[in-house]
Amino acid sequence: MIERVNQAGFQLTSWIMAPFEKTSPWVGIFVFSLLTAVAALLAYKFCSNQRVLKRRKGAAVGRLLEIRLYQDDLLGIFGTLGRLGGATSLYLFESFKPVAILLIPVLLLLFQLSCWYQFRPFDVQEGALVKVEFEDGKAIDPAELRLESSAGISIETDLFQSRDGREALWRIRGHAPDPEGWVELASREEILRKSVSVAPAELTPISQRRLRDSLFGRLMYPKERGIPKTSTVQSIKLSYANAPLYMGSREINWIVALFILSIAFGLLLQKPFRVEF
Amino acid sequence: MNPKPDSRQSSAGRLTRREFVQAAAGVAGAMSTLGFPYIGRAAAGGGVNGVIVLAVDGMDPTLLADCIRTGLTPNCKRLATRGVTRLGTSDPPQSPVAWSNFISGGNPGIHGIFDFISMNKDAMAPQAATGSAGGGGVTLPVGPYALPLSGGKPDFARQGPTLWDLIDRAGIPSTAFRAPVNFPPTPSGANTVSGITTPDIHGNYGEFSFYTESPDEKDRLPPGGRIVRVPVLDGTAECELRGPTNSLRRDQAGVDLPFKVELNRDRSMARIRIQDTEFLLRSAEWSDWVELEFSLIPHMASVTGICRFFLKQTEPYLELYVSPVNIHPGNPAMPISTPDDYCRELVRDVGLFYTQGMPEDTMALSADVFSDDDFREQATMVLEEQMRFTRHEIDRFQGGFLYSYFSTLDLNSHMFWRTLDEQHPLYTKELARQHGDFLPSLYARIDDAVGWALERADDRTLVFVVSDHGFVPFRRQFNLNGWLMDNGYAEPFDRHDRETATFFENTKWQRTKAYGVGINTLNINVKGRERDGIISAGADFDAVRESLIRKLLDYVDEETGENVFKNVHRPEDIYAGPCVESAPDLILGYNENYRASWDTVLGGYPRETVLDNLDPWSGDHCMDSSFLSGVLLCNRRILRNAPRMVDLAPTILSELGVSVPGIMEGKSLFAG
Predict the structure, then answer these.
(1) What is residue B13's predicted lDDT score, i.e. its pLDDT?
(2) B234 neighbourhood in chain A, CB within 8 Å
(3) Mean pLDDT of B361-386
(4) Is A193 part of a structural domain of the chain?
(5) Which of A143, A203, B278, B631 is the least buried, fewest Cβ under 10 Å from its Cβ?
(6) Three-class DSSP category at B82
């Protein structure tokens, strides 16, 4: 089930992202902010009582004006603050249904977009760590483990096994751009492949981990299929660094950017959509 | 000083050249924003569109001539058709002083930088002479914290005009990468990143950490670093990396970061985990830059830094070096660039970089933490990084002013001169065989940058290769303060403690007439100026000073029969300008092969007056300026006889069509 949700979501997001992969990362953020805003407006339009919502919002705004008008009356302000809290609660209660309806799709969207925006690919000649975690109490004999890689990626170190035997680590390095690179972990029972992205020319989805258990964890890394349940490997992780999204020379978190732009588009479009939120 | 009138002032009723340049640059700027390439150069009114200065600290004219002769530096050869032009350096020929001459177009009497180190005359303790980020703003005590309500005031030690700022003010693009003696950066619209004199996160010139399991070692603090003995239990060493002092705490406690080193000795590897970062290193391997965050107030305030790890060995003992924690250029804890965004932009476009002013870790080599090979590897890494950033700036250069500074030849010549100087106490044939090629190879690599600049330059772009000084051997060291004590100019509290006390802790100031602080400066303990001064200004001062000059010039090293000093200057004889009053009382020009000892520089009183220099720091330039000309290469013929550092700024300004401030004393290099 999760695999299907992941695959469908990933296909859809990839299809929407495809025209923007050669443009600035901001273009995709703009597009998804716009889509999110439209979805939110529709959810409000069809899943909330717009008339009541408008009244609740008006009441809250009225309380705010009251504070501004009677700012010299300290006791009065305290009373108004209480009434403002009440009016805001009623407004939020009216918003609950559309927000609840939006919550899961937006979370899934964030998980999908994180493939594009959370991590940056490795640079050419940048060292990276491959870390394999095994199930508790099922440490594997290092002699049985082997790591192989696609052409253009070299495995620079021997296996480093943690003292408790639960982790196996290697250092790899990409020598040429390759968005479809991989490493393959081979043990006596199985062979597991993990994608590695090295200096692609365009915006490319990246999967930091490949996971076995954890429903939430697998939803968070939708690009790759989960590790089979029969495996002793719990996860294969690559040390991708966070991708900086620059506004000029300043970094901004992509989720914050998406959130702010979605609100901005929502405010811009509320009149044409005739929606109150 | 030789103030000169601005010959480019126009007659009444006409635009001055500067006004014309500003107007033209404004139009050019507007066109540029509309998609036109930079055209301000065409309108600048000067002789050229652009100037690229490759500032190669410590490039020696003799060594460069050898490299040209042997074909190692073909691009420099193209610029030296009439031989390598020697460039007159500063007095004293120290990098902060010489580059300040370059920046301000004037002598130290104008810019006020006389040495790396000066004396705080209130505290009577040595201090950095080149400025500080400042502190001491108003704070509000809240529990263990002292929350700042106002910022501290930065101390800009260097005075006078700044070449890149004058160019920027004229509306011409101006960039200075690793601008020397510019920490904290003086306010300017030009793109600058601070270079030499920029501290690490601790506020020092650089403090490495070395973790060792060796039973022969103990915790100690060699100059420029700290050595920590760490036990390895069950294959893991628990270490702590020293962070900055917490300026937000009332007790100014340090903020240290714990980290773990997990060893696999069979495979000579280690896993290092620090904060959220983990990486594998094999023996003799360097890590990439590691970003660190030091929390000042949990979840509220922190400072960031970057460092590199070097796993020297895992067997028989763990030995791990951690570089000084550099100020993070993407999120600087102290100001290191103008505008603030410039260094962030460089990180975005090129990557992280050493922000420490002197990144080659000479102290680690002197402390025997680095072998010669280790040092070479680290120095090569630094050079390649500086090359990358220089390439980036040259590639996007479209006119205006570009200055890029290389520390490589200076710091490596200091450490590897012993491979070339057969008379140095540390020279061996084996050393020369192993490492004698290193300095020439660095000259060859720098030559590549010269090639990039020449490739980029059109016939209206000037390319300068400028070195602030050359190099001579540093074979014998002179204990100036010890000599002052032996000759009755200084008095200790305890004559038996002469060997160990430093920072003038063993100085009875009420009986001391003179003291040496810094490398080339000597001061008289003057009444009313120094905290416990005893010599009156006027005749007493003159008598002491003249006796010192006479005795120092007569001083002969008994072992070699050579004079230790070539010149001893009075400041009024060699400086002019508003800062002369703050100049040291004497400027010492050591003879070739001699220099102030390390102990004397910071106020120690060793007994032996002249002794062999047995430190790998074997070449130097803090001697008399007459031995230490720098290098000047240019893609246009230099007409001026005996060019000097101070001539560069007025030349560059004139060629770009910018008014030369009257305080600049230099003359155009292109006028005979």
Answers:
(1) 33
(2) 163
(3) 97
(4) yes
(5) A143
(6) coil
